[in-house]
Amino acid sequence: MECQTLNLNPQFLYTQNISLQPKNLKLLKTTSLSSSNNPNDQQLVSTATINQTQIPKTQAYNVKFKTLGACKLGISRYPDFDYNADGGAGSGKATEVSDGQVSIEFDVKQLYIPPLSTATTKFLGLPLPPFLKIDIVPGSFRGAINQESGKVDLKFSAKFCFSVGSLYKAQPLLVETVLTSEESKGKMRGGRGERLDKDGKCRLVGVATVEPINDVFMDTFLSLPAECLANLNAVISFSSTEIE
């Protein structure tokens, strides 16, 4: 009768009854290192563990941004405008960079912020004249949000296009600031925001310096260069998907 040799190596017996699933790799590596004195065996198991963990999954999010009423905008020495930004909206993508911290990029082509007009804006309690309008054309909107603390920091740039009917159109005013849920403070203007609550509501503030635009009327009227302040009520919401 032919004799067969039974391999009683503990590592061999162990691996016959367990699949190399990621959740079992740590246990497999520990068992093999303690039960085998062969350096080659240890190297093979270690390599298998590394290969399994080199394909991490990234948490990606769809993010939506909406502006609400009871906002304020101010520039130079003038009192703040009461601004109803209800109806503004945008969407973008966010990627988790650490626990709770997400990096956000909004699609500015799809981002709409209501213009300052007689329907949306009051100055000293009175609506703007019907012929006066300031369109807001976003240039970039990106930054970071901590979903655990609710802290928001979003870099925002836009062109503010001032017009008086068809009679006058000024060169765009370029505004660049960080809209934050924390404190934003310049030399003359400042404000403090509010962090995201459980419903995604927040208040974002940002101070920026507006440079002269080589337009005698606007430069003089606004005393450019001058600081401006944005104070916005907004809602930021997330829906998550998982990507490789």
Automatic annotation (TrEMBL):
Hydrolase is among the record's keywords: yes
UniProt KW keywords: ATP-binding, Hydrolase, Nucleotide-binding, Protease
Single GO MF descriptor: ATP binding
A GO BP entry: proteolysis
Protein's UniProt keywords contain Protease: yes
Lineage top rank: taxon: Eukaryota
The name this protein goes by in its record: ATP-dependent Clp protease ATP-binding subunit
Organism expressing this protein natively: Perilla frutescens var. hirtella (Perilla citriodora)
